[in-house]
Amino acid sequence: MDRYHVTVVGDSGSGKTTFLREMHDTFPGLSIWIDDTDAGGISGRDLDDATTVYSAAEARRATASRIRWVCDDAMEVIEHVRAIAHDYHERTGYPVQVVVDEAHRHLPDSESESSAKVNTLAAMLHEDRDKGVKVVIASQDPQDFYYPPVKQCKYLVWVGPPSTFHRGFIRYYNLKDLDGEGLPSERWEYVVIRPTEPPQAVYHGETREVYG
After folding, report:
1. Tens digit of pLDDT for each residue in 158-211?
2. Rounded distance between C-alpha atoms, residue 22 and residue 205, angstroms
3. Hey, is 180 helix, strand or coil?
4. Of the candidates 199, 118, 185, 92, which has an alpha carbon nearest to the alpha carbon of residue 153?
5. Do residues 97 and 30 lie in contact, with contact meaning Cβ atoms separated by under 8 Å?
C-alpha cells in the first residue's frame, strides 16, 4: 500500500485515526498530514516526530520526513502540498504520502467541483502516482465522494464495524460476503480490500494501541 492511493473508511470512534497515524508514522518517505482544523476530523498533534508547519515556506524548510500541515481548509494549501511533493520526489527519489481526512468535503459528489480539471486533489489521484505521490483519503461516509477520482484508489481500508448509513456503499461494492469473513466486527479491527469484481480481502489486522 506504500505505492498506491488508498481510501480509508471508518465510523466515528472506529479506530480510523489510529490506523492513519500508523500509516503516517511508518511510511518509507515523506508523509504530509494535512491537519484541516475546519474539518473536525483527525489530528496529527500527537505525533511526536512530526514537524508542524503553517505555510508553504515552513514546509519547504522542514527537514523532517513527517510533516503536520495545519490549515483552515485543505483545499487552500493542496496546490502547495502537491508542488512540494513533486519537488521532494524529483530531488530524492523517495515517495511522498499525502493524508487528507474528511475528504468528502473536498471531493463532493459533483462533477463541477470534483473533476480533475478543476480540483487539485482529484488531479493528484488521477495523475500523481507516476510521480511518486500516494494520496490517502479518509471519510466516515464514502458515499459522499465523487466517484471518478476515488476509483483511482487501489485499496479500500475498512476500520471498525460498519454503521447503518454504510449499507448503500456495502451493497454497491458487494462487500457483504467479502472473502467469507465479512467486514470488521470490533473497533480495533480493519480489513484491506481490493475493490475488484468480486472484491478481495487481502489483509486482516488490528490497529496498534501505541498510535491510539
Report:
1. 999 999 989 888 888 888 777 667 899 999 999 999 988 889 999 999 999 888
2. 13
3. helix
4. 199
5. yes
Residue 194, C-alpha cell as written in the block: 481490493
Q: Which residues pair with 35 in a beta bridge?
A: 70
Q: For the chain, give the number of residues.
A: 212
The strand pair at 155-159 and 133-139 is best described as unpaired
Q: What single DSSP character describes residue 17?
A: H
Supply φ then ψ for residue 172, to 5 degrees. Answer: -60, -40
Predicted TM-score (pTM) of the model is 0.93
Q: What is the dihedral of CA 136, 140, 146, 151, to 10 degrees?
A: 50
What the block records as the C-alpha cell of 193 is 480490500
Distance in angstroms (rounded) separating the CA atoms of residues 152 and 112: 18
Question: What's the rounded Cα separation, in Å, for the pair 66 and 49?
Answer: 7
